[in-house]
Amino acid sequence: MNTPISHPAKRGVALAALVLAAQLATAADPTSTVTLVGRAVPDIANLPAGPQRDLVEYGKQLSERTFAHIGPEVANQKLRYAGNNLACVSCHEASATKPFAMPWVGVSATFPQYRGREDDISTVEERVNGCMERSMNGKALPLDSREMKAFTTYIAFLSKDVPIGATVQGAGTVQSKMPNRRADVTAGATVYAAKCAVCHGVDGQGTRVGKAGDAQGYTFPPLWGPDSFNTGAGMNRLAMAARFIKHNMPLGTSHDATQLSDDEAYDVSALMVSKPRPVKANLEVDFPARWNKPVDAAFPPYLVGTADQHKFGPFPPLADKQKQMTEQLKALAAAERAAKAPPSR
Ligand code: HEC
Ligand code: HEC
């Protein structure tokens, strides 16, 4: 129906209806997609002065200089929540805005979400604490702490204008396929010496800004050893690490200008995860649903394949086998849950 609308008042009403329809479409359309590549990052300078802006600023500071505010070397012992001297932005690059480096832009629009690690719906706060306890090898922040509020307020600020339920292109990492072979740690050591050691150190311990104990963090962060992420971190999973490293390292790499081949990224990541690091206790309770445990989560229980294969691959056969066994694994998880449930009265 292409009836021309000539009466000005009618035209106004029609226009308003169109605008409303368009707004409803963005607000409610679950298929809407936001692309982070090339998208402008919200600027804190545009916020009016006041408590909201102060908290966004603090959240950004906390992310960039985590070690100086809640690190293991800060003067106030009560604020020593992180267990290492990394910063959130050691991994969430460019103040957590870089596409395909696990950016936080849009996180407020995609949480609460189901997470396999907990087999439950997880909030933004719980996700922040997931990284606090693993990537930062530390303790959970209290939900009512100024620090937790600052993180979630900064995340919400970055997520401005991303509609709830939208698909965010550039979120997480690039979902590249892993080579179908066991990773080669020796080949990884060669890649490491040629392309990583110059910054992260021959011994993987990085370079501190100042001296140990000064809470000033790193110019180049460590990749393993006592001041690194722990065994429960996402970065300690070979495929996750390979996806991050391939599209973000050496420093300056972006998803559309990579410097490592798939094989190099896979092998150098294997070298990294083969090294010692702090051990997270009670990992067996992660991914209680079992059937959706990522195949590169290299901690027991192993219901399919060997410990070595979960750590170093090859992953495609494991993924296939796990898929075939989905129904069996779901039944097992249900039985485990029933066994743990308190007796009914
Ligand atoms: C050692 C690397 C590393 C550090 C340091 C780190 N994270 Fe993460 N973070 C990750 C990885 C890897 C993921 C993605 C895991 C996944 O996809 O399940 C992630 C995911 C997240 C997410 C969810 C992102 C999304 O798209 O769903 C949030 C929020 C987050 N981290 C917050 C933090 C905060 C806050 C800090 C600092 C206190 C921090 N992280 C430090 C590696 C890190
Ligand atoms: C030019 C210096 C430089 C080179 C070379 C480099 N990195 Fe990095 N890397 C950094 C910096 C700096 C960060 C922190 C993130 C940032 O500032 O953007 C980082 C962060 C990381 C992280 C996440 C943080 C952590 O401590 O775990 C990993 C993993 C990593 N690099 C692996 C590698 C690997 C593997 C290579 C070699 C293929 C490599 N990097 C080469 C400078 C470098």
In summary, what is this structure?
This protein has 345 residues and is mainly α. The protein contains 14 helices and 6 strands. Helix 2 crosses helix 7.
Which features does this protein show?
Cytochrome Bc1 Complex, Chain D, domain 2; 5% strand; disordered N terminus; 2 domains; binds heme C; globular; 345 residues; mainly alpha; two-stranded antiparallel sheet; two-stranded parallel ribbon; 6 strands
Could you walk me through the main structural features you see in this protein, from its secondary elements to its overall organization?
The chain is mainly alpha-helical. The protein starts with 7 loop residues before the first helix and ends in a 5-residue tail after the last helix. The model is unreliable at 1-6 (pLDDT under 50). The strands form three sheets. The protein has a two-stranded parallel ribbon with strand order 1-4. Strands 2-3 form a two-stranded antiparallel sheet. A two-stranded antiparallel sheet has the order 5-6. It has two domains: 44-169, Cytochrome Bc1 Complex, Chain D, domain 2; 185-288 and 301-315, Cytochrome c-like domain (Cytochrome Bc1 Complex, Chain D, domain 2). The chain is 41% helix and 5% strand. The chain has helices spanning 8-28, 51-64, 66-70, 93-96, 107-110, 124-133, 146-158, 185-195, 197-200, 238-248, 262-274, 307-312, 315-324, 326-340; strands spanning 33-35, 113-115, 120-122, 167-169, 207-208, 218-220. The chain has 14 helices and six strands. It binds heme C (2 copies). One heme C is lined by residues 86, 90-91, 93, 195-196, 198-200, 220-223, 229, 235, 245, 249-251, 260, 268.
